[in-house]
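Need a sequence for this fold. Nothing fancy.
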């Protein structure tokens, strides 16, 4: 496996990332501690956090955040400005007033199955599964699983 993207681009931060063959990473990205499969394309201003796995031939469009706890299978489209969420009840501090650390909150895992598409501006709450070939409409807020092959829109997202 190559340890660098297939293309050159200025102003990107890549630390401890496992790349497949032919991965393209655009400028102003921040990728750390993640795995990215063959031929996947990562647009500008994307952040992909530690522990994330992204499959082959995916498109992650600009300005999206893929946070820890997310697994994206092959051939998934993630639109512009999509936000994944992994902490349902976020707090800055503990009851004692100290800044929270990793042990103080529950990490929720999310899966996006093969061939699914997520429209621009969608928010994907933690702990959900977006089924294979499903489509999440632009600006949807996904709070529950989306069954395979369905289209879900709105806030909260409902299958049409
Ligand atoms: C959800 C979606 C697939 C629906 O497309 P469609 O099947 O062609 O549907 P239509 O445009 O004919 O709209 C059908 C109805 O759904 C509504 N609708 C469409 N998209 C919607 C959305 N994202 N959220 C809420 N309602 C939506 C329309 O207002 C319309 O309602 P009406 O019948 O009351 O007028 C599409 O609008 C969408 O959001 N696609 C994602 C696009 C995207 O983000 N691409 C990213 C890269 S550019």
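Here you go.
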């Amino acid at each position: 496996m190559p340890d660098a993207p297939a293309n050159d681009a200025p102003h990107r931060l890549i630390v401890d990332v496992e790349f497949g063959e032919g991965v393209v990473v655009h400028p102003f990205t921040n990728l750390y501690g993640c795995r990215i499969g063959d031929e996947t394309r990562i647009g500008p201003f994307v952040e992909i956090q530690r522990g994330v796995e992204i499959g082959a031939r995916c498109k992650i469009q600009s300005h999206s955040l893929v946070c820890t706890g997310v697994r994206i299978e092959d051939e998934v489209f993630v639109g512009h400005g999509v936000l994944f969420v992994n902490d349902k009840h976020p707090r800055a501090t503990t009851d004692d007033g100290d800044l929270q650390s990793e042990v103080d909150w529950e990490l929720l895992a999310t899966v996006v199955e093969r061939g699914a598409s997520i429209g621009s501006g969608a928010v994907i709450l933690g702990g959900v599964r977006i089924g294979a070939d499903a489509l999440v409409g632009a600006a949807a807020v996904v709070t529950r699983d989306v069954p395979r092959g369905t289209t879900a829109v709105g806030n909260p997202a409902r299958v049409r």
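For context: Residues 79-80, 119-120, 135, 137-139, 151, 153-154 surround coenzyme A (CB under 6 Å).
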